[in-house]
Amino acid sequence: MAYYYDEPSRTFNEYLLVPGHTPSACVPNAVSLKTPLVKYRKGEEECPLSLNIPMVSAIMAAVSDDRMAVALATEGGLSFIYGNQSIEDEAAMVKRVKDYKAGFVVSDANLRPDMTLADVVELKERYGHSTMPVTEDGGPHGKLLGVVTERDYRLSRMSMDEKVADFMTPREKLVVAPADTSLKVANDIIWDHKLNSLPVVDENDHLMYLVFRKDYDSHKSNPNEMLDAHKRYMVGAGINSRDYAERVPALVEAGVDVLCIDSSEGFSDWQKMTIEWVREHYGNDVKIGAGNVVDAEGFRFLAEAGADFIKIGIGGGSICITRETKGIGRGQATAVIEVAKARDEYFKETGIYVPICSDGGIVYDHHISLALAMGADFVMLGRYFARFDESPSNKVMVNGTYMKEYWGEGSARARNWGRYDLGGKKTLAFEEGVDSYVPYAGPLKDNVALTLYKVKATMCNCGALTIPEFQDKAKLTLVSSTSIVEGGAHDVVLKDKNTYASNVSLR
Questions:
Q1: Catalytic: 320?
Q2: Is the N end or the C end of the chain the one with fewer CB atoms within 10 Å?
Q3: pTM of the model
């Protein structure tokens, strides 16, 4: 007969943390959120790859592209570029992240000399940039002919059909830097010449990058940046269990730092075979995560298969309808608690610590704190990051409110059959995700800073300065339905109410 669990599976919303003693030295600014990303022999060696903040972006076309990867790496997290695209396109995204030089910007708003003031205005409205290089072909790496800034034109005094060539600042009047210029030297040039921006050109005078005064200051203010040994931003990528023999080599060649099998069902031979292939061809040099699982048995299977980290969660995502369509899944809190115990038991037996990632079920910022307290080393977020400027989805107006499009990988829009692969034909038999909107929330940086401050404050309330200490000291209690109601605003008429936590930027 079927096996029946004695206890119901529970969600994060059914738990609260009980405060502990807070020492005077335990303040948010003293808290470290550094956490391991891949397996290692804990107590014997340093983790070869760690996160500076416990947040990674979901392997979704509506969430994680190269722009999101750069933005999140700047803050100390990591993006996994979505795998539901061609091998060439995914590898190109990875390469763009690895080629991105902090403080060195590839211009996305460029002009030709035969374009007009009307084109300048249109580009400014589209991209929001006041500085636009003028190149021979109008491309980001064409021969540099000049620059147009707001100082070069006056809309009230000029005709909209006036040619760019007639009012741009020409190349001979520009201060430029050679291709091998470091960010520090570029900043010195900017300050010596009282510039707002500095073009960087190659030996043939083709534009490579722009360096902005404000970007250097921003770079210096981001101590948590996720950088590899070559000072490049770090980035992950999603793969499936079908074309890994072709996709993995291309991603490795592009410079990917870590892979993750993107699947709703991790407890499968398909994932084991994928991990074994990676180990056979790359040994331990290529790091690969796996999942998703919801119990100790699933964790053990993937850990013994050689996974570098393991994702937890089936059916808990805001756009996931796996539980509704298949009756498969488990409450996210219960899943994390059980897998965390299995992770600790595996460590005691083998000496190998396999990090676990809570993927799904996080609606509010405090759910991140609960996931960490329950044993997760980091969390994977989809809806959370989909709301920001840096996500690849469109910003649209819905009923007078700005929203961002957000769709699941199992939706008809994505048709990501590879994520739900059970060895059958290459098609999505039925939907396991929906197409939706999420409230637009502005820039990633401000929102992540607010969320992390909440997490740090919670950790201080529990007397913890590190995530391992938090997990050791945390005391969790189940709450009744009445307690859940009591925990929010009640018995008052609200003047304003945000549907989601951290929905307003700090600008």
A1: yes
A2: N
A3: 0.79
